[in-house]
Amino acid sequence: MIIKTAEFIKSSAKIDQCPKGDLPEYAFIGRSNVGKSSLINMLTGFSKLAMTSAKPGKTALINHFLINEKWYLVDLPGYGYAKRNKGQRLQFQKMIDYYITQREQMTNLFILVDARLEPQNIDLEFIHKMGEYGVPFSIVMTKIDKLKKGQLQESIKKYKEKLLETWEDLPPFFLTSATTKNGKEEILGYIENINTTIK
Ligand code: GTP
Ligand code: MG
């Protein structure tokens, strides 16, 4: 798919502030600093579209980016950011949960996990919760440029084994790097496919 236009529309604190209309949207979630905003920039080819930072906790609102005037990419705040206090963390969790479960336009959730880490409980719990909610999701490994081939294969294997302890089938699984642009065509092709089927 060719991205001709990518436009920041707005930041929202609640779903009733999100853009009106029925265009499909694809949202990105995962721990703070996993690379959600960087992935959005990589996919669109506009490197300064979503704000990124080496410090976790950068994205604090629901951000809508209109792509080719037909569908949205949605950048969400990360979960599990330790520097937020308990009350703030709960508030973020509520905002994210509410968006994911109540926003009818939300067509697919990309759950990002860091390729360098062992499967993390916080991610596994989140993935299981999405399965229980019946939310359509895929898993995206990020920062694969940081691993050697063998290490990456090992990491993928561990993740899949872990998921298969709970689930009979695996969700779609993408390998990405915002640095080398790995996974770009795969994710855009996946989105394009869904967009054509729901038209
Ligand atoms: P929050 O908004 O804080 O939740 O973080 P985020 O998930 O949006 O992460 P962000 O995209 O801001 O990236 C965090 C850091 O990881 C930045 O320093 C990025 O440059 C770096 N980063 C993101 N993706 C990659 C990648 O694929 N490879 C490498 N090497 N670094 C990456
Ligand atoms: Mg971000």
3D architecture notes:
This protein is an alpha/beta fold and 199 residues long. 35% of the residues lie in helices and 21% in strands. It contains five helices and seven strands; from the N terminus they run E-E-H-E-E-H-E-H-E-H-E-H. A seven-stranded mixed β-sheet has the order 1-3-4-2-5-6-7, sandwiched between helices. The chain is globular, with a radius of gyration of 16 Å. The two termini are 16 Å apart. The model has no long low-confidence stretch (mean pLDDT 93). Bound molecules: guanosine-5'-triphosphate and magnesium ion.
List keywords for this structure.
7 strands; globular; 5 helices; seven-stranded mixed beta sheet; binds magnesium ion; binds guanosine-5'-triphosphate; alpha/beta; single chain; 199 residues
- Oligomeric description of these chains: single chain
Main sheet overview: 7 strands, mixed
Shape: globular
Rg over CA atoms: 16 Å
Order of helices and strands: EEHEEHEHEHEH
Considering DSSP H and I runs of 4 or more, what fraction of the residues is helical? 25-40%
Structural class by SSE content: alpha/beta
**How much strand content do the residues show?**
15-25%
**What is the spatial order of strands in the main beta sheet?**
1-3-4-2-5-6-7
